[in-house]
Write a structure and sequence with these properties.
elongated, 1986 residues, 9% strand, 10-stranded mixed beta sheet
Length: 1986
């Protein structure tokens, strides 16, 4: 039997003219014609020639006889296009294509190489044409050149049927052959006899795949996935070709072969291959034969041929392509034991000469060697590409070949992984990467779920029942040839998954991936062939982030010195040991290497690892590298770091990588089967043996011991030796070699290797590197500890000094405002210095690069900066650490010797210096960002002062925001300065919001002790890159954004998770109180920021936990007190036995006990009630405590991460996300505010006292605005109802029920309640609003009820007035009847004199006088009031002398008593106590001599509210008799009495019932009582003069109101007055009658006259309501809350610079606010919006006109319909208008003659037109004459709020709600105390301190003027009830407004208070620089901050 698969074809001479194949590139069919399919060896053939008579890989030995043929030159184009993979394969020669992926094991001595072909062709006259369509890739493979094939497109099944299986070895052949005389695998020996037969084209239908397969003649295609094991000494290189050609007369034209293949379509690629001789794909053969030639060799001997050959192949799809393979001989998984059996996949065919039509082919002769080699390469390339495409398809990574994975694809919160579940192939790549990012080294061993029947989880197991055979079961048992079901493919090789993901990732994700692989202690790819081009690349960039740490052991003076080294692995110079395999071996090289590095961990993946399969496609030719890092222990395998390189695959076939490794390595280790001569590996071994490099040869089939052949050349047999023995022996040899001189390997030198690509040569990478090198070059030759001081000056001493001074601002002493100004000036100076120093070369280059570089270039730039700086610092830090270690050892030695000399002190000083240097030597990218922040803050703070043009600094936050969004962590708190740069952080977050929107985030923070693995935990959990290293890994706090992926976003209420990583607590660098304070500060800050805080605890020892728990519990207690409610999870790391549930329960119990204990301790310190931790925060010890296994599985530095740790991370992550799903998160803007609030509070000594939740304040301020809107809606609706009912009462309504009012209000009230529900349920602020929901619902309910009660009370008074006036009203009707009758009679008498106006008037007056006399004869007129007389009488009745009353009235000074600054004249002593210094000089008083004595006694009156116990800090007593506070008390009494009096009088029914002197008597009585009560609280008495002046003052205040009200009463109720007012009306009627007008005309005029007065009143009242509503919405001062109104009041005062207004505002704020409202209303109505106000009035007139017209129509129609009379008409008309207009009764008996009602209607309408026109032109001043005015409506609305004043500065509480308990009073507009008159005791020095500054100082005060006890300002709430009701938050803001006010009105204030701003109260110079514009602007800024 010939060798399997060989073909020996001998062709006789031929006269046939063979034409060139010259095809266009348009179609696959034409393309295929350009290939010569005679001989194409298999792909991936990398053969080594070790035989004397064997040619190398793919070589061709062609022996040509003389020929008369005109043979043209064969041009081979090696540069084929890369457009389409499908087109590429179509251009290949498919005559000889061995099967794919052959995994054969052969033990024959005489086997030829795999896939060889020996073809000898006889002459033939056959004309063969293959004409294939462009259908599909499946069909393409089947369409070979044996026949002309036109194949269908229908199905894969049909395709296979159309192939003729002449000789195609099966795919996936794993054959084991033991024949001695077998030919080389895959060879083909085909001998053809001459033939005259003309072979015609075969045109096949496109019916079925089955038919298709039958039509293909694949002469020789060995199976795929062949990994044979061959150990033959005489094997030629893989895929060699020996072609012997006979003479030929053929005219052979030029054949162009294009080798530069496209990459577009795998389908097209396969279609272009010539399958006659194509060795298997990815052949990793292991051969054990002695006489086997190289894999895939081909020996073709061609005779002359007359064949005319045409090849036309399509280029359609991969699926169809495979189906069109040549199936001539395709045994699958055969096992043959015959001596004469051909090798797998080979064919020897010798057809005889025939004249019949046969399916054969004449092979063209005279192919030269180059053509054959190219054909082999093409074949290999296409085969490999098909397998690669298939692999990427299975992993669903086809699209990622072009559009790569990026870090952003995995830096997000995605669906949770299920570690315990299998994964389907399509998710394999993602799962691998996600688990790798979690440091799960089991990512390589992910079990695959068998979703498809085509995938098997292991190698297919043959099943005999499935084989159609008649053999008995026993025969089957002994059978060695089993046909397996090859339709099932094995699962993807784990390393193929890794490499596929690697190839589909961009350079940044590759870097992350390799870094994580390194952390998992896996080998890393050093040389990687391209998956398509096979070009070798060194991914040097991916190694840049890897840092290795190891300990070197050296012997010095008979002792071992251990030195630690830590450096980037790219920079490390280490020995490198390379492992190569030559030929095929049964043992695993990778497994052996693992025993050298870490025998407990599979550093290199090997065949015995879980998930391994024989079919791998991406690892051959890959070189992996790993480092052994010693730990400095005696059991270390090596004493220094050693690199190990592993070349995967047969090194004989992979020349380029083999040569690179042997050149770079320090030691070469070669594994070969044997060293027998003639073995294929001999040449390579000889070269290695002759080189100077140390060499270790490992012989697989030899059992010899270790032998040193010559110096540094060893050999060692492996046979019958255990792996551990081999490993130990190898270690010994290597240690021996490496102990002497040896070459070192440095990873960076790989960039200099020629012939390979280096990823860092990418343009973008180089651009980024060159930009970063410009910066790094600045540091050359510099001490790293000086870099920051030199190039980053803004963040060093300047920033630290600024931080220190800024903190001192919150702990002021002495003259605090002066000190504050000094410190602020220092801060400004530092900022100026920073600004001047901000132009360092480093920052210029850095910013320039960020601004100018493209996106990708910028990413590279930032990475390079980080890498290069880290590399720079690592080396210097290592040297500093070594120096520190050495000096420390010397210090210890001296101490042991008890050396007390100067040498010890010197060494200790040196040690301290080194320690300081170590701190300053820390330098990273974060420091550059910190410098950016400081430059920005410096420029920003000075921007207004300098007024310079903005430069690049303005864009700094934008640049940082871009980096933060892309995944870079940003520094939140500077760990070195211990400060938060608020301005920088705010601007940075603002820019993030501009780019992303104000997204919601869930803030996850972490706290824990130093070096407890916090950053490592976060990195593993979320795939982050927080800095991780031993010791103090993180300084301060960093934040990083992680996006929530779209797949799970619906499960969460936020868009991002914001992770905050922090430095460790209990830092060794800090000591004592500094440490504790810093830790408390950090813990409070981080806990406050987080929605959830992870408390990381290292170990379980409660003693170790105690300090941390105390800090944490105190932080949570502070949060509770300031109404923040974060959650927490405790994480116990490094727990030894996490599986012990009982132990965990005990640990949880102990933790709970410890937390409860800490809670009780913290409660005492924070003055809070808490018995257990659950009282502080919602905490479930069963769920909220997690236990973590230790991080490392073994001892570092070689230990991989513990899988248990990964499982714990995964569980914790899912738990966090589960809890997070219940949280609404916070917006970025809220997060920004939280940072401000927490940090500002932390700067103060008392956090809880100082904390101001601006988020909460802002939400409350908005709620106040809504509350104002709701109350206004109720008020305006009630005003409308009241107005209507008032009219109805005037028209006769005698009762108003409360239920009616509630019913009328119900609609509005229900709408408001619905609005409230919606508002309080708003998701955005729901959590904060809930605390006020119940309170505001009650407030609205109370307001609603109050409005109803108030209106009911007012309407009842109106009704009572109507009842009281009913008698007069009845008389008025009688009057009118008489007047009307008299006028009518007189008119009839004087008809003839109608034209004589004077006569008519004379006659009317005479009759009118008589008539009025008759009517009023029995009615007493209402007299005018005499208030002055009543006042004197009342005062006399109270016991005051007439002379005293007269004197006061004459002096007229009582009118200014409220503004009088000095009330000493009103005081007399009642108790003879010394109150002060008798030497005090009195003031002159011209009134009474006794005042002199009184003033002397009061010379040193009082102790006043003080500023500390020291004399200089005590309050002052002026030269006035009374101390300032007593003056203020008297002033307050006056104001209080005034307000009470006005309220009392205005509640009296003067306008309805008239004035009564009892009203004033009640006022007088009340005033006297209040004065008496006031005196009881004082040590002095008030003179009678005071009471008299005060009574006269309040009488004067209410006098004008009483007079006006009584006047209104008289107008409405006095008969004489009433009739006098009606005279003109009746004269007009009289005159009309005289003119002969009909009754209808006269009645019309009468009705119009009545309508006019009532319409004016109705229009004015309605307009007042409308205008108030309009201004409430439109006027900025009225449209907000109380705080907004206050701001506009202060603005108005400043703009007018009205000191009197200021004084009124300070002393009587409500009065000034009311004045402001009136002024604004007047301005709005009469100036700013006069036209709009007039339009409102006209609209109301039109509305009433329309109603009247409707009433006229209705009355007229009804009378006409019902045939009614005039009385009926009037009644109907008046009833139609009763809700809108008052309409007095008309006596109809004088108009009974009216029967033409249409005429009446027309007359009224005529008159109405004139009336309405006249009313439309009314002045808006007319509103003042009626019941409602817009200013009063607004005053009632806006002033119904809190008016309590600050006990220090008298600032008014700005809460919109009147009774806002339990919320305390507060105001942002605090002011200097001196404005109120506060001064230091016993001095005339006014106080300039602000309340907000004082409460942060260490000063003290006296709560009352007569107090002896002082209180610290920090504890002001303990000083009494009035202080406790206020909340004054320390505030560092400038409060410019009041500083400007003090400077502007300094003289007037001093005169007003008779005190001075000097000495301790001196005004700082800086205050005088503020302008009015700045003052007003500060009000806006203050509002924004609220």
């Amino acid at each position: 039997m010939t060798r399997e698969g060989e073909s020996d074809i001998k062709s006789e001479p031929s006269t046939t003219e063979e034409k060139a194949v010259d095809e266009p590139e348009d179609s696959a069919a034409e393309t295929e014609a350009k290939c010569d399919p005679l001989n194409e060896p298999g792909r991936d053939e990398h053969s080594q020639k070790n035989d004397d008579n064997t040619t190398g890989e793919g070589e061709s030995d062609i022996k040509s006889e003389p020929s008369t043929t005109k043979e043209k030159e064969i041009n081979i184009d090696l540069d084929e296009p890369e457009d389409s993979a499908a087109e590429t394969e179509a251009k290949c020669d498919p005559l000889n294509e061995p099967g794919c992926d052959e995994h054969s094991q052969k033990n024959d001595d005489n086997m030829t190489g795999e896939g060889e072909s020996d073809i000898k062709s006889e002459p033939s006259t056959t004309v063969e044409k293959v004409d294939e369509p462009e259908d599909s890739a499946a069909e393409t493979e089947a369409k070979y050149d044996q026949v002309l094939v036109d194949e269908p497109e229908d199905s894969a099944a049909e395709t296979e049927a159309e192939c003729e299986p002449l000789n195609e070895p099966g795919r996936d052949e794993h054959s084991q052959k033991n024949d001695d005389n077998m030919t080389r695998e895959g060879e083909s020996d085909i001998k053809s006899e001459p033939s005259t037969t003309e072979e015609k084209a075969v045109d096949e239908p496109e019916d079925s795949a089955a038919e298709t397969e039958a039509k293909c003649d694949p002469l020789n295609e060995p199976g795929r996935d062949e990994h044979s094991q061959k150990n033959d000494d005489n094997t030629t290189g893989e895929g060699e070709s020996d072609i012997k050609s006979e003479p030929s007369t053929t005219k052979e034209k030029e054949i162009n072969i294009d080798l530069d293949e496209p990459e577009d379509s795998a389908a097209e690629t396969e279609a272009k291959c010539d399958p006659l001789n194509e060795p298997g794909r990815d052949e990793h053969s292991q051969k054990n034969d002695d006489n086997t030639t190289g894999e895939g060799e081909s020996d073709i001997k061609s005779e002359p041929s007359t064949t005319k050959e045409t090849v036309d192949e399509p280029e359609d799809s991969a699926a169809e392509t495979e189906a069109k393979c040549d199936t001539l001989n395709e045994p699958e998984h055969s096992e043959k034991n015959d001596d004469n059996t051909t090798m797998e996949g080979k064919s020897e065919i010798k057809p005889e000469q025939s004249t019949t039509k046969e399916k054969d082919m004449d092979v063209g002769e005279d192919k030269d060697t180059q053509s054959v080699q190219i054909s082999e390469e093409i074949n290999k390339k296409k085969q490999h590409q098909r397998e690669t495409e298939k692999l990427f398809g299975r992993l669903h990574l086809q699209d990622k070949r072009q559009q790569k994975f990026t870090p952003a694809d995995f830096l997000k919160i995605g669906p949770p992984l299920k570690l315990e579940d299998d994964t389907c192939e399509k998710d394999l790549a993602h799962t691998f990467l996600q688990r790798l990012m979690m440091l799960d080294y089991r990512a390589r061993y992910i079990p695959v779920r068998q979703d498809s029947p085509e995938v098997s989880l292991s190698n297919p197991v043959p099943v005999f029942d499935n084989v159609e055979t008649d053999d008995s079961d026993l025969d089957a048992l002994y059978s060695t040839s089993v046909e397996s079901d090859q339709s099932k493919q094995t699962h993807v090789h784990p390393m193929d998954v890794q490499m596929a993901v690697f190839h589909c990732s961009d350079s940044f994700l590759k870097q992350n991936m390799i870094t994580k692989l390194s952390q998992c202690q896996y080998a890393l790819p050093l040389l990687v062939p391209g998956p398509v081009t096979m070009d070798v690349e060194c991914p040097l960039w991916t190694f840049r982030q890897i840092k290795k740490t190891w300990k070197i052991t050296q012997n010095e003076d008979d002792s071992n010195i251990v030195t630690m080294k830590s450096m980037p692995i790219c920079k490390a110079e280490t020995p490198m040991v390379s492992f190569l395999r030559l030929g095929s071996l049964s043992l695993s090289k990778s497994q052996l290497m693992n025993t050298l590095i870490n025998d407990r961990h599979n550093t290199f993946f090997h065949r015995n690892c879980s998930g391994s399969t024989k079919s791998r496609h991406l690892m051959d030719g890959v070189v992996e590298i790993a480092w052994y890092c010693p730990s400095g222990k005696p059991n270390d395998a090596f004493t220094d770091c050693v690199a190990f390189c592993n070349l995967h695959g047969d090194a004989l076939l992979i020349e380029k990588q083999r040569d690179i490794l042997t050149e770079k390595s320090s030691v070469n280790v070669v594994l070969v089967p044997t060293l027998e001569e003639g073995h294929e590996s001999i040449t390579v071994i000889s070269n290695l043996f002759e080189s100077k490099k140390p060499l270790i040869i490992l012989l697989a089939d030899d059992d010899c011991g270790t032998a040193q052949i010559k110096e540094q050349k060893y050999k060692l047999g492996l046979k019958d030796k255990s792996q551990s023995d081999v490993s130990e022996e190898l270690k010994r040899i290597m240690r021996n070699i490496l102990s002497g001189p040896h070459d070192s390997f440095k990873l960076e030198t790989m960039a200099d290797v020629s012939g390979i690509k280096v990823d860092e040569n990418d343009t973008a990478c180089q651009t980024g590197k060159s930009a970063s090198m410009k910066i790094v070059d600045l540091f050359q030759g510099m001490d790293v500890s000086k870099i920051k001081d030199t190039f980053l000056p803004c963040q060093g001493k300047l920033w630290h000094e600024w931080s220190r001074i800024n903190k001192e601002l919150y702990h002021l002493k002495g003259d605090i405002e002066m000190e504050k100004c000094e410190k602020q000036q220092k801060l400004k100076t530092i900022r100026q210095n920073q600004q001047e120093a901000s132009s360092s070369e480093l920052m210029k280059l850095f910013i320039e690069s960020l601004l100018s570089l493209k996106s990708t270039d910028k990413e590279y730039f930032v990475k390079w900066i980080q890498i290069l700086i880290d590399a720079l610092c690592t080396g210097d830090l290592s040297s500093i650490l070594q120096k520190y270690d050495k000096t420390w050892s010397e210090v210890l030695t001296l101490k042991k010797k008890h050396d007390k000399s100067d040498q010890l002190e010197s060494k200790q000083t040196e040690l301290d210096q080194i320690s300081a240097k170590l701190q300053s030597a820390t330098f990273g990218l974060e420091h550059i960002f910190r410098e950016m922040g400081q430059i920005y803050e410096a420029h920003k703070s000075l921007q207004e002062q300098t007024n310079t043009a903005q430069t690049d600094w303005v864009r700094y936050p934008e640049l940082a925001a871009e980096l933060m969004i892309s995944g870079h962590p940003m520094e939140l708190m500077d760990g070195d300065a211990g400060h938060v740069p608020l301005t920088w952080i705010s601007s940075l977050l603002d820019e993030v919001m501009k780019k992303l929107g104000d997204k919601k985030v869930f803030v996850l923070s972490v706290l824990g002790v130093q070096s407890s693995g916090k950053s490592t935990m976060l990195n593993a959990m979320f795939g982050l890159q927080f800095a991780v290293s031993a010791g103090r890994c993180t300084k301060g706090a960093f934040m990083q954004l992680i996006r929530v992926s779209e797949e799970i976003k619906t499960n969460f209420q936020f868009d991002y998770v914001l992770v905050v990583d922090t430095e460790g607590l209990r830092a060794l660098e800090l000591a004592g109180n500094t440490n504790l304070h810093h830790d408390n500060e950090l813990a409070t800050f981080v806990v406050g920021l987080g929605n959830m805080t992870l408390i990381n605890i290292f170990g379980e020892n409660p003693a170790d936990m105690q300090d941390v728990l105390q800090i944490v519990v105190q932080a949570f207690m502070r949060m509770k007190k300031v109404k923040l409610s974060p959650s927490c999870v405790f994480v116990h790391q490094n727990v030894t036995d996490v599986a012990a549930a009982e132990k965990n329960m005990d640990g949880k119990r102990r933790l709970q006990d410890k937390l409860d204990e800490m809670a009780r301790l913290a409660a005492k310190e924070e003055v809070c009630d808490a018995e257990c931790f659950s009282d502080v925060i919602a905490f479930d010890v069963q769920k909220d405590v997690k236990y973590f296994a230790q991080l490392w599985e073994g001892s570092p530095p070689m230990a991989p991460p513990n899988p248990g740790y990964t499982e714990s991370i995964h569980e914790l992550k899912n738990f966090i996300l589960s809890k997070a799903s219940q949280s609404a998160g916070i917006t970025l803007s809220q997060f920004k505010s939280k940072i401000h609030d927490l940090w500002n509070a932390l700067l103060n000594e008392n956090f809880v006292f100082s904390f101001k939740n601006t988020l909460e304040v802002a939400v409350y301020r908005k709620l106040e605005v809504q509350y104002g809107n709701w109350t206004w809606a109720l008020r305006s609706n009630m005003l409308t109802i009241e107005n209507q009912l008032h009219t109805e009462i005037e028209n006769g309504l005698d009762k108003v029920e409360p239920n009616y009012l509630y019913e009328e209000m119900s609609k509005t009230y229900e709408e408001i309640k619905n609005d409230m529900t919606i508002y309080f349920d708003d998701k955005r602020d729901k959590e904060m609003l809930v605390q006020w929901k119940g309170r505001f619902e009650n407030k609205i309910k109370e307001f609603h009820e109050e409005q109803v009660r108030g209106v009911k009370r007012k309407l009842d008074e109106v009704i009572q007035q109507r009842s009281a006036c009913k008698k007069f009203d009845d008389k008025k009707t009688e009057f009118e009847n008489k007047l009307l009758q008299k006028s009518k009679e007189l008119a009839h008498q004087l008809k003839d004199k109608a034209k004589d106006e004077e006569e008519l008037e004379k006659q009317f007056n005479s009759v009118w006088t008589v008539c009025v006399r008759e009517i009023t004869a029995i009615i007493k007129p209402i007299e005018d009031i005499n208030l002055e007389e009543d006042q004197s009488t009342i005062l006399q009745d109270l016991g005051f002398e007439w002379s005293l009353i007269a004197e006061s009235k004459a002096r007229d000074s009582y009118k200014n008593i409220s503004e009088l600054g000095d009330y000493s004249v009103y005081v007399t002593l009642t108790k003879h106590k010394e109150h002060g210094d008798t030497n005090q000089q009195p003031q002159d008083d011209n009134r009474e001599n006794e005042n002199t004595t009184i003033k002397k006694v009061w010379g040193y009156v009082k102790t006043f509210w003080g500023y500390g116990p020291k004399q200089e800090n005590k309050k002052h007593t002026s030269s006035n008799l009374l101390c300032h506070e007593e003056q203020q008390l008297i002033s307050s009494l006056i104001n209080k009495v005034e307000q009470q009096t006005i309220a009392m009088i205005k509640n009296k029914p003067v306008a309805t019932r008239g004035y009564n002197s009892t009203y004033l008597r009640e006022v007088a009585k009340n005033v006297k009582e209040k004065v008496t009560e006031f005196e009881l609280q004082l040590k002095y008495a008030l003179k009678k003069e005071f009471t008299v002046d005060l009574l006269l003052y309040v009488f004067d205040k209410v006098g004008s109101w009483l007079s006006e009200s009584h006047k209104k009463f008289k107008m409405s109720n006095d008969a004489h007055t009433y009739l006098e007012n009606k005279k003109m009306q009746y004269y007009n009627i009289f005159r009309s009658f005289c003119k002969g007008n009909s009754s209808a005309v006269v009645l019309g005029e009468l009705i119009c006259e009545k309508l006019k007065s009532s319409t004016v009143e109705a229009v004015c009242n309605k307009t007042a309501i409308d205008l108030a509503g309009e201004m409430r919405c439109r006027c900025p001062a009225f449209s907000g809350n109380r705080l907004n109104l206050e701001k506009h009041v202060l603005k108005s005062l400043a703009e007018k610079e009205d000191l009197d207004g200021f004084i009124t505002y300070i002393q009587r704020p409500r009065q000034q606010v009311e004045t402001f409202i009136k002024e604004e209303v007047k301005k709005y109505i009469f100036t700013q919006n006069k036209n709009k106000a007039q339009k409102i009035l006209k609209k109301n007139v039109e509305d009433i006109k329309r109603l009247v017209s409707q009433a006229l129509f209705t009355a007229t129609e009804e009378v006409r319909t019902q045939r009614g009379n005039i009385e009926m008409w009037v009644k109907k008309f008046s009833s139609s208008l009763k809700d809108v207009l008052t309409f007095d009764t008309i006596c109809c008996q004088n108009f009974n003659d009216i029967d033409k009602f249409d005429f009446l209607k027309e007359e009224i309408e005529k008159g109405l037109e004139c009336v309405m026109h006249e009313i439309s032109s009314l002045s808006l001043d007319k509103m003042n004459e009626f019941r409602l005015q817009p200013d009063q409506i607004l005053i009632d609305q806006l002033c119904n709020c809190c008016w309590e004043t600050c006990p220090f500065c008298a600032a008014v509480c700005t809460n919109t709600v009147k009774d806002h308990l339990p919320d305390k009073h507060n105001v942002p507009f605090h002011r200097p105390h001196g404005i109120k008159g506060w001064h230091f005791r016993n001095t005339d020095e006014l106080v300039i301190d602000f309340c907000t500054t004082s409460v942060a100082s260490d000063k003290r005060f006296y709560p009352r003027h007569d107090s002896d006890k002082t209180y610290p300002y920090k504890e002001y709430q303990k000083a009494g009830k009035e202080y406790a009701s206020w909340e004054i938050t320390p505030d560092g803001s400038q409060l410019t407004y009041w500083k400007w006010f003090v400077c502007k009105f300094q003289t007037q204030i001093e005169e007003h208070h008779k005190l001075k701003f000097h000495h301790s109260g001196e005004i700082p110079c800086e205050w005088k620089n503020y302008s009015k514009r700045e003052a007003i602007k500060s009000l806006d800024e203050m509002i924004k901050s609220q």
